[in-house]
Amino acid sequence: MTRATHFIADLHLDNDQEPAACRLAAYLAGAARQADALYVLGDLFEVWIGDDGSLARHTATLTAFSALVEHGVTVYFQRGNRDFAVGPAFISAGQIQILDDPIVIDLYGTPTLLTHGDLLCSDDVAHQRFRARYTNPRWRTRMLALPLWLRRVIARRARARSAAGKQRLAADIMDVNNHTVGQIMRRHGATRIIHGHTHRPADYRQAAYERHVIADWRPEQTQVLVASADGVSRHTIAADGTLD
């Protein structure tokens, strides 16, 4: 059997009962068990206001991750801009390992940079200001010290501002800046980058590196990115958890 590593991102799960969560659970009990490892590159959840306020909505999902780990597949997680507040209870419930963002791994001989992806969108100045805050552990600690009701209000308002902002901004501002990508790749000595965040799944090949954007999950699209020694490919997750 060919060795392979799986990547998903941007599922934006709201609860355990929605179709995407059910499809994820089937995948974790199915095709994911054949992987060397599973990387979740951020925004697994629509919002995570802290373990105390969000864990109960996703108990079954985290149980499914834990069962995958107990089967022998390591699960890695990078914080996204929607779920930066995941904490110790999340880690324990899913038996998940938290990764820095960005990080370079040796992926079957290819130095590969992994990132949620928002740090590449340098033209979106407002989001970069927010990213500077949410990636700061001390800022996260202060936020999580707020009362739960207030965190719910802040999250609701932040989502409304985000939706309004997307209507105002030009589409290319919310995409990656190629100059920024090149700089980061050279800085880290990587020849491949895998990321999510932009919701623009595609595969790009430049002279010095290749870039693979993980698909966001939608009712008509549940996809996993699969990397092996032969390269990177995309596969749709069927209702029974198998890959096409």
Could you please describe the fold and organization of this structure?
There is one protein chain. The protein is 35% helix and 20% strand. The chain has 244 residues and is of the alpha/beta class. The chain has a single domain, classed as Purple Acid Phosphatase, chain A, domain 2 (4-Layer Sandwich). A hairpin with a 4-residue loop joins strand 8 and strand 9. The chain starts with a strand and ends in an 8-residue tail after the last strand.
Strand content: 15-25%
Q: Helices and strands: which structural class?
A: alpha/beta
Order of helices and strands: EHEHHEHEEEHHHHEEEEE
- Indicate the CATH class: Alpha Beta
Rg, rounded, reads 17 Å
The count of domains is: 1
The CATH superfamily appears as Metallo-dependent phosphatases
Number of helices: 8
Overall form: globular
Distance between the termini: 16 Å
CATH topology annotation: Purple Acid Phosphatase, chain A, domain 2
Which helices and strands appear, and what pairs or packs with what?
Blueprint: E1 5-8, H1 19-29, E2 37-40, H2 51-54, H3 59-71, E3 74-77, H4 88-94, E4 97-98, E5 103-107, E6 110-115, H5 125-134, H6 137-144, H7 148-168, H8 178-188, E7 192-195, E8 202-205, E9 210-213, E10 223-228, E11 231-236
Parallel strand pairs: 1-2, 2-3, 3-4, 6-7, 7-9
Antiparallel strand pairs: 1-10, 5-6, 8-9, 10-11
Helix pairs in contact: 1-3
